[in-house]
Amino acid sequence: MVGTHRHVQTADERVLPQGTAYITDLGMTGPTDSVIGVDKDLALQRFLSQMPNRFEPAKGPVSLHGAVIRIDPETGRGLSIERLRVPLPD
Questions:
Q1: How many domains does the chain have?
Q2: Is residue 21 in some structural domain?
Q3: DSSP state of 42
Q4: Is there a domain that residue 4 lies in?
Q5: Closest-CA residue to 77 (of 2, 20, 17, 8)
Q6: pLDDT of residue 89
Q7: Cβ atoms of 55 and 42 closer than 8 Å
Q8: Out of 26, 29, 60, 61, which residue is the most buried by the measure of CB atoms under 10 Å away?
């Protein structure tokens, strides 16, 4: 079971007693120097002015966040879960 809402990867991955691999939030895949993927200056301008504006994707380095889960093929239970954070080249 994986969650994906807060955009910041949590460090609470574990396998629960009956074999459920769990992490609260996988994190966001996208630009690392951004506000949830949006150009930070545009997001800040919208927040400070309280006026709508067009969001544009941020530019620059990106990273892939996720998890690698090993599952027992016979039982379907999780054997392990490992957080994954991979910086990608520009």
A1: 1
A2: yes
A3: H
A4: no
A5: 20
A6: 80
A7: yes
A8: 26
Sort residue 50 into left (φ over 0), alpha (ψ -120 to 50) or beta: left
Long-range contacts of 22-28 (CB under 8 A, 24+ apart): 22/78, 22/81, 23/67, 23/81, 23/83, 26/2, 26/65, 26/66, 26/67, 27/65, 27/66, 27/85, 28/65
Percent share of the chain, pLDDT over 70: 99
The conformational region for residue 30 under phi > 0 = left, psi -120 to 50 = alpha, else beta, is left
CA dist list (Å): 77 to 1, 38, 67, 83: 11, 37, 16, 18
Written as six digits, the tokens of 10 are 């949590």
Tell me the pLDDT tens digit for each residue of 48-78. Answer: 999 999 999 999 999 999 999 999 999 999 9
For 81, other C-beta atoms within 10 Å of its C-beta total: 20
